[in-house]
Amino acid sequence: MSTTKSADLVNYAELARPTRLTKSLESFTALREGFITNDRDRRLKYSHWAQALNEANLHITVREEEIGAAANAYQEVAEHLAANLSWPPEAVSILTQGSVSTKTLIRSPNGGEKFDIDAVCQVDISRIEATNPMGFFESIGRALEDLKAQAKRRCWNIPFTGRPFYLEFTPSVPLDSVPTQILNSMAPRYRASRYERTALAVVDTPTSSWKTSNPAGMSKWVDDTAQRSLILVATLEAYAADRAKASVAPVPDQTVVITDTLRVAIRLFKRHRDICVRRGIIEAASKPISIIIVTLLTTCYEGLADLNRSFEHPVELLDELAALMPHLILKLDGKYRVDNPTVEGENFAEKWNDDDGERYRSFMIWCETLSADLKTILALTDPQEISKRVREVFGIPAPSGGGNGLPTIQPPAPRATPASSGLA
Fold first, then answer.
1. pLDDT tens digit string along 255-286?
2. Do 79 and 168 reside in the same domain of the chain?
3. Does 42 share its domain with 146?
4. Alpha-carbon distance 295 to 148, whole Å?
5. Please, are residues 158 and 169 in contact by the beta-carbon 8 Å criterion?
6. In terms of domains, do 52 and 177 share one?
7. CA dihedral angle for residue 77, residue 82, residue 83, residue 88, rounded to 10 degrees
8. How far apart are alpha carbons 305 and 342 in whole angstroms?
9. Are residues 177 and 322 in the same domain?
10. Full residue range of the structural domain in which residue 409 is found
11. Which distant-in-sequence residues (6+ apart) come within 8 Å of 244 by Cβ?
12. From CA 331, how far away is CA 313, in angstroms rounded?
């Protein structure tokens, strides 16, 4: 029977990974030996971990009013471009991409540090002269000079002084509108492979050429995958009922809660990575980039769904995603790969192959630290100890406001798993 690529990766990872944390801990003896016999008792067993992890997730959420302010900034930039380039307003549209569009944006643990908002400037190429990729890219930069825009590889960074965010702003044209002569000049191995209708042509400044990109496709992939439920239906229904009875303030509709386990995993794991940098466990320059974390976790979740795996509780699924994630890295012909699922040939881990393995080592150290931290959380049974440990691991201030959010423990950095051929 044929399987999907994601399912194949998960099958390999299940063979390579250690025992699932929640199934190997002493605190789960009662579950394994049948002393807990009904769904209510099982949910109570998990409830303290779920509550503490969900509180951490809510704490790192960027407030809705901050997102709204950023949305206003998109329109400001669009109007700025239309005015400075004498383009018709209807020729320019600004669309969110990345963590904002997938509801996985998190705030920095470093106080007032800005968060980044990724956006694409989608231009109607039938109205604009864009046959020269560098000319197109640089014309955008000149139009944004008074916004202090700074050029990066494929985008312009707009700092927005005095606001809590900055924009990463990528000029693009819809791929299906690109003339044949431009399409033929693009790198042939970079073709849209999923969600083709949302694919874009963006400027790759190091090569001065057009390349395929599909941020909307990536967001749709995360959204579609997150909607595939891996939690037993009875558990989800009971969890919702328990929340309705809880004596806590209702969660706003736009907030992601722990039953949306893929998005919560992306948020919490990104936060844990940032705390590992803060602890000095990994270096900021070599920390795993968010797109790699998102791709690996979504691939893992998709593969589990394709294999019809199911879990009794979101905490179990979070544990499984953490355990499998490091074993989903491909190594082909001596090169690390994390493939873009929407653009054939694009490797998100390309830089891993040009730094003597530093980024790979940082990734593995982070993954092992994440598993070790989750193990200590899941080994606890006292609600207050669980809450305290979760705050330490994810850099959350104490509820009283007296804490400073800094972790109070410094576990030793684990040794990185050595590189190997084939799947690593």
1. 566 788 999 999 999 999 999 999 999 999 99
2. yes
3. no
4. 32
5. yes
6. no
7. -150
8. 19
9. no
10. 5-62+222-423
11. none
12. 32
Place of tokens 């598993």: 371
Residues 263 and 173 in one domain: no
* pLDDT digit string, tens, across residues 347-380: 999 999 999 999 999 999 999 999 999 999 988 9
φ, ψ of residue 192 to 5 degrees: the values are -60, 130
Here the tokens at position 130 are 């864009």
Token code pair at residue 250: 């209702």
Which tokens is 351 given?
A: 């830089």
Q: Tell which of 214, 241, 263 closes a domain.
A: 214
> Which residues fall within 8 angstroms of residue 153, CB to CB, at 6 or more apart?
204, 205, 206
